[in-house]
Amino acid sequence: MKGTDPAAIGGDGGVRPRFAPTSIRARFTLAMAGVSLLVYAVIGVGVDTAVHNRIERDAFRDTQRAATEWIGSMRSPTPPQPITSERVPYLQLVDASGSVVSASRAASGLPALSTLRPPYDDRIQNRVQCANGRCLVLTASRVSPQEAARLWAGQSHIVYAAMPRPALLGSQRLEALVAAGVLAASLLTGWATWALVGRTLRPVEAMRAQIAEITISDLSLRVPQPSGDDEVARLARTANQTLDRLEDAMERQRRFGSMVSHELRRPLTGLRTQLEEVLLFPEADARRGVRDALATAERLQSIIEEMLMLTRISTGPRAVEPVGLAALAREEAARRGGGPPVEVSAPEELTVTGNRVQLAGVLANLLVNAQRHARTGVRVTVLRAGGDAAVAVQDDGAGIAPGDRERVFEPFTRLAEGRRRDPAGSGLGLAICRAVAETHNGTLRVEDSDRGARFVLRLPLARSQP
Predict the structure, then answer these.
(1) Which of 99, 155, 340, 346 is least surrounded, with the fewest CB atoms within 10 Å of its CB?
(2) Residue 111 included in any domain
(3) Mean pLDDT of the chain
């Protein structure tokens, strides 16, 4: 984007305003202050209008009352000077020609206060009238026809009652007070928002600082976890759980890397030795030396392929489909000829969702191990266990000691009996089987049995399974 400041480009690729705050706290505070300013301004305008209307209404009420009371007290065509209140000092009686017939002391000698002449159908009218730098709140009240007939032979007369416009209506003082109140309320709201958001985000900042100190070489640190069960507390728990999984994965990776280097070193050393013998001793059987080296290379290739398989399986099954475990167990048992017989017991078909090839590989590996250690036969049982399908593979051999039942699933771990019966094994078969079970949200364990070893694979039943 030519001519665009890189600092103005947001993390999502969008262009951020140059002076936009980057802090969530600042953005939220500015947004809240802006919204509150708008709301308070609307409220302020309403308050200002209401106060203006109330003051003006009260003023017109007083002038109207003064005019009405004077009209009611008239007994002669030329009424005496009225007694006024301090609030409404101006009263005038004006005839049809506009001449002042009678007036209060404050209005004596003044021309008619107004030219407003209300009609008979709307005899009382109010007005704010300004002239010569003076503004009056004025009521013009036309004398009723009955009074006019009684006092002036039907000639129309009008009474004007007025008072100086109140100071709040004649200046911007009220608007200034309302504006100051709106600004103060908005600033107070912004400060409160800043403090509240800061307090809310303080645990998040503590988590960020702690995570920044975590390195790949030391994953033992954990973020501080606030009490309660709000979003921040759940975020801290999730972060710590993620760090636990990451630390466990890194530890397993270190152990696996150490074991891989150890397990590969031996065949590589053997391969190098065999090739050096062929070069150093020409008189030896070169063909036999190359054949031995080729066998070592094949074993090395087998180990590498199994390690790659274990790595691929840990990412989860690639393609899943409904798999009937009873039918799959019968198919794999039928392929295991040439060893102790395999008996399958499956009262019902149990369907799971998974990768058929991987699950078949697990059953095949378990059956091979069971036949290798069995004395007379192997029994496979497929049954329902709550919401899971369980496949148990049991032999009648020597069994596995309780202390070794977890070790056998570790990569490159081989018990003495296994090395004796299968010297060429890599020790990765059961590790691959457990990895497949776990990627299918299942388990693979060695359980107690009266005789021999009993491996039990548990997998969740498919949703369509009744």
Answers:
(1) 99
(2) yes
(3) 83
